[in-house]
Design goal:
heterodimer, A: alpha/beta, five-stranded parallel sheet, 27 strands, B: alpha/beta, 5 helices, globular, disordered C terminus
Chain lengths: 754, 135
């Protein structure tokens, strides 16, 4: 292990040198022979020697001189010199030899064992000195190294720590050395480190690498990478050597990188990296979602893959600006997905720099702005619709003013005529009749107008009942037959003999039919036939009433505007016969109140027109009678709708009612309840009064107004029981008033009764 | 005795037209009544009215068209044409001016005002050069 130790033998007689060699050979040293003082000095300059054996009597320089010269050379200043002499003489007194730095003075012939023993001593000294020097050098090196070295014994006690870099951890030496190393470890790393230590102890001489955290004096944690070697069996070391390096900066960088990667990965936005050649280098989940390509499919491909072919010139511009370090923000453009569909995106592009600050690529963040655009579009549409609606209202008012002015003119003229002295009684009579006519006309207009207005604002109450549409049509049409015949027209009725049941207000439905028939006459324009037909479409649950004429017909572009007040085919024509142009608006409003719809169709001008009304078909009266049975048995299965915003209360009511044998549905708000009632047509509705939004009274009103639900049995559920509240609920249209919590027996009785 | 102006009443609502014509007669004017635009042009050619009381909202040809045509015809180019209409918005008044009307009345016309107007309209004969009257 150790380097060979050098011994210098100086003697000008070769035989002597050989003799020394023989004596010293067993020591295993490197014996260097010098035949002269000059040679010796040279050797001593070039190398280190453990000891010099010097013959006193030399040719040329004598031994003492040589010794002096040796001492004056820096490298050999302190080398031990053993003088060898054949005899004592006063020329070479031992005292002088010692003064010259000899460590021993031997007289030849030398006893071999003695010489070997003495030389061995100096060898030892030399080796020790060399070792200490090595140590010092090592310490000096380590003191300035980043790494630390801990020497641990078997149980982990720190027996030494080199160098004194503990200041980086913040400890004084005595706070570290002598303590057990495990106490400085992070709890989460303990078991891994212990395991590794165990492995090392079992396999001397092997190495193991492990990262862990050391606690700094201030309590913070420092990440280190450590390599451990079990050198317990090495007598020179007798410890487990742990070489550790502070990697906290790397760890911090790694953690930040991991965090950033997580942010990129979890971002909803598409984050795409590309190099300066436009090749995709990274692709996050957001990009996968937005564009449909997986990372494997696109990394390495050119980013133009995403560009719509009709707009390639965007690209050069972008690639130009990047190297200049420019950013692009919120650039709206279009991209193409994997499936070929286009997507509107907003892009932000920024340059990617390497460590030296050179731009090496670009990071693009793309966000799908489709939803935003659609919302903007929807808002724009809404604004347009509002404007249109305003315009229509303005137009309505203008028309209204115009229409009401017309009858006033002859009235004013008439008054002046009556006042004029030259007016004769006959004329007076004529004028008065004309004025009466006009006044009646104005009232009729006003009535029609108010009617339409009320209908459009939902302020008309229908007095609905179950009626036979076939019969109503027959009756109304017959009543109008005279008018038609007066206009030289023929009325044809195609109405079934069996009843077609609908829920409706007979007066209003008659009004609707009359309007349509009057129109047919007004716009007959030479036509002769008016056909009125009623059918029942049981499959779709609809009753259909249609009025067809062969008169002047309607232009295609007027069809959509037909039912708008005042706007109709030939306004002035209608006006000249005394109408306001409101007839069809009235028809539409009334039909819709009945839960139905009206549509007009025409083959074109001169080809007649057909108006079709659809109303919901009512159930057979027999079925109805069964549901709202007046006679017991009490366990009649009813359809019960519960309207209650408190979910628990609602659900427990449902359970109770189901137990009583009824079919139950629940709505948690007034509006939902009204909607459900219309669709499901329950026989009974239990409604909580205290609902948010549309309250119980509101619900009752809504249900009573609508012909499809106006006959349902309404029970109010409320916490109040005072007389006042009972009155209010019955005023609102409730049949019964039940105070919560509802008594099951009472409820059952109420439901069973008629 | 006021000059006997010839007044043509063009109005599709008969009660309005007839009562107006009667009142004019009571005031001592000559009057003729037609109920639509085409008839108005036919009659105007031979009747040569001094004043035309013209409703805008006529069936078929509307009042603006009638006015423009009357202005274009030599016999009626210099007639005093009055619009009688249920539309009183600024835009409507503008339109009347552009169509060549001399005055614009909103229905119902106040007979007193009408009388005042008629009293100040010059009767035009063959010697008067037909020029379009502008305001």
């Amino acid at each position: 292990m150790a380097e060979p130790v050098n011994i210098l033998l100086i003697d000008d007689h070769e035989a002597n040198l050989l003799a020394l060699e023989v004596v010293l050979e067993p020591l295993g040293l490197n014996l260097v022979k010098a035949g002269s003082g000059h040679d010796a000095l040279r050797f001593l300059r070039e190398d280190d020697f453990a000891v010099v054996l010097l013959d006193v009597r030399l040719d040329g320089m004598n031994g003492f001189e040589v010794a002096q010269r040796i001492r004056s050379q820096e490298r050999s200043q302190h080398v031990p010199i053993i003088f060898l002499t054949a005899y004592e003489s006063e020329d070479f007194p031992p005292a002088k030899a010692y003064v010259l730095g000899a460590v021993d003075y031997l007289v030849k012939p030398v006893v071999p064992e003695i010489l070997r023993a003495k030389v061995a001593v100096f060898i030892d000294l030399f080796q020790n000195a060399r070792l200490r020097q090595s140590e010092r050098r090592l310490r000096a090196l380590l003191a300035n190294a980043w790494d630390g070295i801990s020497l641990l014994d078997r149980d982990g006690t720190i027996v030494e720590n080199i160098p004194d870099n503990l200041h980086r951890l913040g400890y004084r030496r005595d706070e570290f050395v002598g303590h057990n190393g495990f106490q400085f470890l992070h709890p989460d790393d303990l078991s891994a480190v212990a395991k590794t230590m165990g492995q090392l102890l079992q396999a001397p001489g092997t190495k193991a690498t492990i990262p862990y955290r050391l606690r700094r004096k201030d309590g913070s944690w420092c990440w280190v990478e450590a390599i451990g070697v079990n050198l317990l069996d090495d007598p020179a070391v007798q410890a487990v050597v742990v070489n550790y390096r502070d990697v906290s900066e790397q760890k911090a960088a790694e953690q930040m990188r991991a965090e950033l990667a997580a942010i990129v990965a979890s971002s909803d936005d598409a984050i795409i990296g590309q190099d300066l050649q436009g090749i995709i280098t990274s692709w996050n989940k957001g990009a996968e979602r937005l564009y449909g390509y997986t990372a494997e499919e696109v990394i390495g491909k050119p980013v133009v893959l995403l560009h719509p072919p009709e707009n390639p010139d965007e690209l050069p511009n972008l690639l130009e600006r990047l190297p200049r370090g420019e950013r692009v923000e919120h650039f709206e453009t279009v991209r193409v997905r994997k499936d070929g569909s286009h997507v509107d995106v907003s892009l932000s592009v920024s340059p990617i720099h390497d460590g030296k600050g050179t731009i090496v690529g670009a990071a693009k963040i793309a966000r799908d702005v489709g939803p935003r655009k659609r919302m903007e579009e929807a808002l724009r549409r809404q604004a347009e619709e509002l404007t249109e609606s305003h315009r229509q209202k303005d137009q309505f008012l203008t028309m209204l003013a115009h229409e009401l002015r017309n009858p006033l003119a002859p009235l004013l003229t008439g008054l002046h005529i009556l006042r004029h002295p030259r007016t004769t009684p006959e004329v007076e009579e004529q004028i008065r009749a004309m004025m009466e006519r006009q006044v009646r006309h104005v009232s009729q207009l006003v009535d029609e107008l108010l009617d339409v207005s009320r209908i459009l604002h939902g302020k008309v109450q229908l007095r609905s009942d179950r009626l036979d549409l076939a019969r109503l049509t027959r009756t109304a049409a017959e009543d109008r037959r005279a008018v038609l015949e007066q206009a030289q027209m023929t009325l044809l009725l195609d109405v079934p003999a069996i009843p077609v049941w609908v829920m409706g207000d007979p007066k209003r439905l008659t009004q609707v039919l009359n309007n349509l028939l009057d129109n047919a006459v007004k716009f007959a324009d030479g036509g002769r036939k008016v056909t009125v037909r009623v059918t029942a479409d049981a499959e779709r649950g609809r009753a259909v009433l249609s009025v067809r004429d062969d008169g002047s017909g309607i232009e295609a572009d007027l069809l959509p505007r037909l039912f708008v007040p005042f706007l109709q085919a030939d306004r002035s024509l209608d006006r000249s016969r005394g109408g306001l142009g409101l007839g069809l608006a009235l028809v539409k409003g009334l039909v819709e109140l009945h839960g139905g719809s009206v549509a007009a169709s025409s083959a074109g001008p001169g080809r007649g027109a057909e108006f079709t009304i659809r109303l919901p078909l009512e159930q057979e009266p027999a079925a109805l009678a069964e549901e709202s049975a007046e006679l017991p048995p009490p366990k009649k299965r009813l359809r019960v709708l519960v309207i209650e915003d408190n979910r628990d209360a609602a659900d427990s009511l449902r359970l109770l009612l189901e137990l009583l044998g009824h079919e139950v549905r629940v709505a948690y708000s007034g509006l939902e309840g009204v909607e459900e009632a219309r669709k499901w047509r329950p026989g009974v509705v239990l409604c909580d009064i205290g609902l948010p939004g549309l309250d119980g009274y509101g619900v009752a009103r809504e249900l009573r107004l609508n012909p499809t639900t106006s006959r349902v049995r309404l029970l109010a559920l409320t916490g109040y029981g005072a007389e006042e509240d009972r009155r209010r609920s019955s005023e609102a249209g409730f049949d019964f008033h039940v105070v919560k919590p509802a008594d099951p027996a009472e409820l059952s009785k109420l439901l069973a009764s008629g | 005795m006021p000059p006997s102006l010839r007044i043509l009443v063009v109005e599709d609502l008969r009660d309005s037209a007839d009562s107006m014509a009667f009142l004019l007669k009571l005031w001592g004017y000559q009057s003729a009544v037609v109920y639509d635009g085409e008839r108005a042009l036919e009659v105007a050619a031979t009747y040569r009215p001094d004043v035309v009381l013209l409703d805008i909202g006529l069936p078929g040809m509307n009042g603006y068209k009638v006015a423009r045509t009357l202005r274009a015809l030599p016999g009626t180019a210099s007639a005093f044409i009055v619009a009688i209409t249920g539309y009183g918005q600024k835009a409507d008044v503008e339109r009347c001016k552009e169509a060549g009307f001399d005055r614009h009345f909103l229905k119902p016309v106040d007979p007193a005002e009408l009388q005042r107007l008629l009293a100040n309209v010059p009767k035009h004969g063959a010697e008067v050069e037909p020029t379009a009257i502008t305001n």
